Amino acid sequence: MKTQKLFNFALGAVVALFMMVSTAQAQSKNIVELAVGNDNLSTLVAAVKAGGLVETLSGNGPFTVFAPTNEAFAALPAGTLETLLKPENKDQLVAILTYHVVPGKVMSGDLSNGQKAATVQGENVDVAISGGGVKISGANVVAADVNASNGVVHVIDQVILPPSMR
Question: PANTHER family of this UniProt entry (predicted)?
Answer without folding.
Answer: FI19380P1, PERIOSTIN-RELATED
